Every structure is written in structure tokens, then in C-alpha cells.
Amino acid sequence: MMSDTTKTTRVFFDEIVGLRIILALWVAVGHGLQLSGFVVAKDPITAVLLNAHSAVVVFMIISGFVITNLLMVKQESYPRYLTRRFFRLYPAYVLCCILGYVMAGYWLDIVQAAPWQDAEGWEAYSQSIYELDYEARENFWPHALLHASMFHGMVPDEIINRAAMVFLPAAWSISLEWQFYLVAPFVLAALRSTKATIFVLLLAAAAYVGYQVGLLGHYDIKSSLAVATPAFFLGIVSRLGYQKLKEATFVSPLVASAVVIFVGLTMFDKPLPYLVWGVFFSYLLWSDRAPFTGRLFKQLFTSRLASILGEASYSLYLVHRPVQVALGVFAMSFVTLNQWSMFAVQMAAVAIAMPISVAMYFFIEKPGMNLGKSIANRLPEGEAESKGSRLINTGP
After folding, report:
1. How far apart are CA 1 and CA 10, in angstroms?
2. Integer-rounded Cα radius of gyration of the chain
3. Which of 23, 170, 206, 278 is a good FRET partner for 297, with 20 to 30 A between their CA atoms?
4. DSSP code at position 387
5. How far apart are CA 224 and CA 227, in angstroms?
6. Which residues have C-beta within 8 Å of that of residue 355, sequence separation ≥ 6?
7. Exposure string (b/e) for 6-43, b if CB count within 10 Å is 16 or more?
8. By the 8 A CB rule, do 136 and 104 touch?
């Protein structure tokens, strides 16, 4: 049975906002390296930067944490909840999908004209971009309809090729977010009962195994909720256990982080996203018990700059690729670039994308959220409120 006292329920976690901008920048830098011909890592730092998928997994964990917190502190009907979530995602998503479609041909031009055709991994990368451009042109309407529904990540290649990645490759994870939003309230409601919890865990395990053995089809990337449940579940469990863990007065975040790193490196094959979350969560819980590193943690993740950029991290995550392609095409039309000069162009594109993302937050995301709030407040309560979405008991 889940419980959390209303008195001690934390409403907002500023530190998570700061973490989001670091993750978005991680993804953007990794994509910039790829477009510059650094597709295969030659050193540990490049390997981490190219592993942008790990950053997305941390985003999934954060989503599990944040949605659980939302449902704990803001109890509302399922239609109201879903309306708010839809308008949180959709406006910036649609705009960037359109931008991605417009830039697809230019992206292919860069790939075909780049002087580093013999770079390791470039042939496979080039073929991938060609396939995305082909699908966008030849199967526009099926992909457009799938993207309009945000269900494109659920569709295996057997039905339509590369459905998760066409138009805007980063949008595969937005589909995954939407899939999670749809089921999260019911999963959290089920956790109030032991039998229902067992049922949900068995269902999730069956879906995970079904995905891994190909019963659900084959996917270009892990964009189906069936395979992402461990990350979302870790976020859910982290939030549900937050208050009790917070009260464990004998724990040091330094010691907890060391344990997380040791366990992750010795027991898991690809531990990076879980190491990132484990260390971050340790300091989220106990930063006040480490005077020096705890203060650094607060300064890094809760500064005014981190807060502003963190709020815009969703837009940065979506818009950086079209900006990178646009600036790359522009630069290549004037000068001949090598890999390192293209990487400098890509980092300049990230710098340009940051103020664009801030503007998108204030002029697209926030109006979208306000519209969603206005529509949600007009939706009826009644039966949906009592059955569908008073999902977590916040009483003792």
C-alpha cells in the first residue's frame, strides 16, 4: 500500500530541472559529434558523449519520478490529467517535427557531401539518414498520421519502416513519454494493492520479454513502452521511497554514490544511466549531509541559469537537430570543412539553439500548458475523479 503524508510531500524538485538541461546538452553534443563524422568512439570521453541514449534513459527515470510526484500532490481526474500532459508535449513537438521534415533533405545533403566519407561508421550513418529521408518523402502520410497521434514509437518496422525516427529522430522518446503518460495513473493506482501490483509486474515482465524475443515486432530503436518499463519503474520507486529514504539520517551522499557506482560497474553491462541517476538521487536525498559537495550540487542544479535553461530543456532536446543541420548546410556552402571544423559549427549550433529553446518555452510551451490547463479545468469531475484518478493515497 502506497502512502505519503501530505505534510511532508515535496511539491517541486528544482534540482531535476537543472539535471534536464545537462541531459539535453549531452544529447545535442552527441548528435553534433555524429554529424561531424565522429560516429565511432576512440576514447572514453567521446564514448560517453556519443552514448546519448543513456541520457534519454535518465529522462525516462525522471519522467517516472515526476509523474508519480504529480499524481501524489495534484489529484485530478484522468481526462484532466491527460489533457494537461498532452498540451505539455504537443505544441513544441509538432513545430519541431515540421522543422525536422523541412530539414531532412538538407541533412542528407550534408551526409553525402561531407569530405569524411571514409570515417569509421560513416557509411552506416549515411545509410540511416538516407532511409529516413526516403521514408519522409515516399511514405509521408502514414508517418504524418502516426506522428500526429504520438504513437509512432509503438509501430514496428514490419508495419512501417523506421516509424519512430522519421521527421525528427529525437521524437521517438516523445512517443515513449506519451505511452507512459497514458498508463501511469493506472499503474500507480494498482500499486495500492498487493495483488494488483503483482499483476502489473507480471504484465510488464511479459511485455518486456515479448519485445526482446521479437513477438511485438522489430524496432529501429527502443521506442516501445514494453522495453522501457525498467527505467520508468525506477523513477516511480524512487519517488515513492523518497520520504523514508530522506529520513535515514545516517546516510552520506558520498558513501551512497560510491555504493551505487560500485554496484553498477560490477553487476550491470550498461550501467551509465543508472549510475547518473543513482548519484544524482543520492544528493537529491542527502545533499545537506555533505557540506562541500552538497553545496556544489545545489549550485549546479538550482542556480538561476540552470533553472531557466532547465525549463527550456524539452525544446532544446527537440530543436537542436534542425538547428545543427541548418548551420551545417550554411557553413558548408561557404567553406570546406573537416571533421573538427564541422564539430565547431555543431557546437555553435547548440549555442544558438539554447536561446531559441528559451524563446520556445516562453512563447510556445507555456501558452500550450496554459491552454491545456484552461481546457482541463472545463472538463467534468464526478465519476472519473473518484474512480479513475484519485490514484495515490496521500494521507497517513
Report:
1. 19
2. 22
3. 170
4. I
5. 6
6. none
7. eeeeeeebebbbbbbbbbbbbbbbbbbbbbbbbbebee
8. yes
> Which three cell numbers, joined as nine digits, stand for 237?
520507486
DSSP secondary structure letter of residue 346: H
| Distance set, CA 17 to CA 301, 350, 369 (Å) | 7, 19, 17
Convert the pLDDT of each residue in 240-296 to its tens digit. Answer: 999 999 987 778 899 999 999 999 999 888 899 999 999 999 999 999 999 899 999
8 A C-beta contact, residue 306 and residue 300: yes
Helix or strand (DSSP H, E) at 203: helix 194-212
Grid cell, residue 107, equals 541533412
250 burial (CB, 10 Å; 0-12 / 13-18 / 19+) is exposed
Amino acid sitting at position 269: D
Query: For residue 127, what are the CA distances in angstroms to 104, 118, 132, 372?
Result: 13, 13, 9, 40
